[in-house]
Amino acid sequence: MKSNLILKITSLNTIVIAIRLVISLIIQRVLAVSFGEVGIAKIGQIRNLMQIITSTASLGTFNGIVKYVSEFTEKKEKLNRFFNTAFVFGFIGSFLSATIIFFRASWITQSLFGNLDFLELIKILAILPPVIAINMIFGGLINGLSDYKKYAKIELVSYLLSALLLLVFLYNYQLKGVLFSIILTPILHLFVILYIFGSTIKKHINVKNLKVEIPFAKEILGFTLMSFVSSILLNYVELDIRTTITNKISANEAGYWTAMTFISKNYMVFSSGLFTLYVIPKFARIHEGSVFKKEVIYIYKTLLPLFGLGMLLVYFFRKLVIEVVYPNFLGLEPLFKWQLIGDFIRLAALVVSHQFLAKKMVKTFIITEFLSLGLFYVLARYLVVVYGAEGVVMAHLYRYIIYFFIVILAVWNYFKRQKNNLGYE
């Protein structure tokens, strides 16, 4: 444990996630009992929208910041110039996001919920993009420095406060209150970051005059494109599939699938911090295929057994999970096996595919993500008609089986080209 950074990050992450999981289970049960399958589906819609805004508000700068902070930690002047450009990108992304949300609020509300009952909430959402952009920039710094202890503390405190806020608004304002609390969560998160990480931010970020420097702008634009594909299109696809399930089958089936994705996201959080705190910074410093292969095997040997054991426990206790968290969600049980196997393969594929982010392989990343999302969208639209919500999680599994082999081939080709170029030189 002392010498294994992955286990250090994972063990601390596990404590945080265990606490989050307990609270999340309680909250999900309260929401399920209060609003049923239809309410859960609506909450899924607003969360997908928040993910899209998170990407557009910062113009995808997060992973770029992680990469360059990890590489240039000691080069303060270069980092300051990079952050000048990153803040300009955040300002542009925030302005565009806020403008679109405010003036297209009616269309967004109608598309998400099928009516205008939540129009005021969507309009309020237009004030949040600047806060979200700053969150992403500061979050990129935390992850780039691999400061996993402060990261864990920020994640835990933010989650506890947001959970408390959700319960208070649920008690006073029902479903609208829940959706409003989700919208306010980024503001809480920013205050927590400034309180816990403020001194480190002052040390590493000294933005005197905001200006775009072309070399850094070109670097960030690559990550903007990758973020557009991985986050915006992914959440758009999920929104569209949920709407398709509602229209072609029922809102209840949409609720079952949304509940399954909530469960999945709870245990997938276990690995998300590891990717930005360890994998991207580590891969960014690796330049040989043999070293990369050794590192991937090392990550697999450390992470996959733990993850696999956890997923087996989730599967064997699935009935208890449904009874405790989603009572009366009778159509949820058949979804578990497909989702869990798909997520295990997804984790193995994501470890390798983070090489695309670490080395800013923009074209490769975009092509593989388009293939992945295209497979999921086409398969889900076809299988949902035949198998209902179960068809969507079947599509999830088939997608990641194919995606896994695609990313392995792409990374193998990358290192083959690197070796040939070095041999040529």
Name a few traits of the molecule:
mainly alpha; 425 residues; 14 helices
- Regarding quaternary structure, how should these chains be classified? single chain
Unreliably modeled segments: none
Structural class: mainly alpha
How many beta-strand runs? 0
Q: Helix amount, in percent?
A: over 70%
Q: Percent of residues in beta strands?
A: under 5%
Q: Tell me the series of helices and strands, N- to C-terminal.
A: HHHHHHHHHHHHHH
Shape: globular
Average of per-residue pLDDT values: 82
Q: What about the largest sheet?
A: none
Helix tally? Answer: 14
Rg value: 21 Å
Any overview of this molecule?
The protein has 425 residues and is mostly helical. Helices cover 87% and strands 0% of the residues. It is built from 14 helices and no strands. It has helices at 5-58, 61-71, 76-103, 105-113, 119-124, 129-144, 148-204, 214-248, 251-284, 289-316, 318-325, 336-358, 362-387, 389-424. Helix 3 (76-103) runs antiparallel to helix 6 (129-144), helix 8 packs antiparallel against helix 9 and helix 10 (289-316) packs antiparallel against helix 12. The protein is globular and about 55 Å long.
